[in-house]
Amino acid sequence: MTYTLTTPLYYVNDRAHLGSAYTTLACDAIARYHRLMGDAVVFITGCDEHGQKIQRTAEAAGLSPQAHCDLVSASYQELWQNWQISNDRFIRTTDPRHRRIVEQFFARVEANGDIREGRQQGWYCVACEEFKDDPAEAQEPSCAIHHKPLEWRDEVNLFFRLSNYQEQIEQLIRRPGFIAPESRRREVENFVAQGLRDFSISRVNLPWGIPVPGHGGHTFYVWFDALLGYLTALLNNDDHVDLDAVSERGWPAQLHVIGKDILRFHAVYWPAMLLSAGLPLPERVFGHGFLTREGQKMGKSLGNVLDPQLLLERCGSDAVRWYLLRDIPFGDDGDFQQQRFVDLVNSDLANTIGNLLNRTIAMARRWFDGAVPDPGEAAGPSHPLAVAAGDACSTYHVAWQRLDFRAAAEAALGLAVAANGYLNEQAPWSRMKQEGQREQVSSDLYAVLEAARLVAQLLAPLVPLMSDRMLAQLPAAPAPWPDQLRWGALTVGAPLPEPTPVMARLELEGQL
């Protein structure tokens, strides 16, 4: 099965921040899980590079818009490489292929009778790249999101006849699972219930954008252009640019992961555009929450922005991934608290999981000739840790279907807690001193090592580097991942390496 998922195409007015890293890390975890399950994954990310905001930002920096886009897009690509993000495609909307896809798509929509000309009047936020519905009562209208003054616009634009799709969009958003989480679906339902209004898809006198064919002076509105980047990204470099080719390359997407602020564009405008062009609709749109820091919104003026590159350099990717995916319920707003971050990583990864592996390998090497001991009774499915492992795996797979990273992480962690409890209860360090207990100790250590191996497998999508470090110390025969989740795959008699720490404790001085 092909599984296509996307991050938003990040707007290149500035470099990546923790919010964009959070979305990308979440998608990376989903992509890794589906690859392990045997799906042919197409994981798309990239940059949205057109619009007035980009033009003004570039001008302020003394750069051409293209030079600015080249610089910032390269910084995104480098950052995702440093984080070892496993995206398959990176699309830029300044890609020449993208212009041709946009032109072909527009031609279909126009031929379908869904383009009209009209006058657009209203208050416009350049930062949002959208008209605001009702700020006119204020003496000095400003954007509630960006807290910047709005600009009055009065111009002739091209409009997409969104109103033609009222009934179809109503049916779509009622479809179970199309919009998640549930709170987001209610937001969209309320918006659609007010009646869908045609929306502007062009701007005039804006040179930094894709010209609208047959409509001189018009360039495509950045959102109309950017959403189509998901389609362009599916083309191979040697492809003849043909809109129909995307259906052979992985469209429709199974999942769009976005911030909740752009839900309307993805759950209403985008499906209507696709319906007009006769293309299949994405299966699911997931709108996650925002991140704050120590209870405050992050912003340059407050000086509390968390730089993803700095986080990576000081803490490592596994620590940050674990905290963001394990502690914040996906879909809700989350607060980055430095002390909780340190405590959680040290408790869960360094202590509960890392120490379990380290001490068990050390005992097995000391007492059983440096090799994986014989399992004895631990080989069977009724062993307490085998039962705990089976329960953990079942919970884990259900959690991934719900995109519940916290539950998936807790399933892996819970198995490690059970293994630690079993080890302390059996106390092999005491049993080994008793005559006739060697076989029992062998069985106990095998069971704990096997549980640790399964913990490592379950951690693979969440903290892949730590998972690799664990599995390198736990010999098992190569097999497809679902088979690796079977109890008893640890190779009896295989040499055990000298244990090495799989997660260093975080010791942070001062604020990040």
Keywords for this entry:
19 helices, Rossmann fold, four-stranded antiparallel beta sheet, Isoleucyl-tRNA Synthetase, Domain 1, alpha/beta, single chain, 2 domains, six-stranded parallel beta sheet, about 500 residues, elongated, about 45% helix
Which residues sit in consecutive blocks of at least 5 with pLDDT less than 50? none
Taking the alpha carbons of the first and last residues, their distance comes to 42 Å
Mean pLDDT: 93
- Spatial strand order of the main sheet: 3-2-1-11-12-7
Task: Give a written overview of the molecule.
By secondary structure, the protein is of the alpha/beta class. It folds into two domains: 2-289, 3-Layer(aba) Sandwich (Rossmann fold); 342-484, Isoleucyl-tRNA Synthetase, Domain 1 (Orthogonal Bundle), CATH 1.10.730.10. It is 47% helix and 14% strand. The protein contains 19 helices and 15 strands. The strands form four sheets. It has a six-stranded parallel sheet, sandwiched between helices. A four-stranded antiparallel sheet has the order 5-4-6-8. Helix 5 (166-174) packs antiparallel against helix 6 (182-193). The longest helix has 30 residues, at 338-367. It is elongated and about 90 Å long. The model has no long low-confidence stretch (mean pLDDT 93).
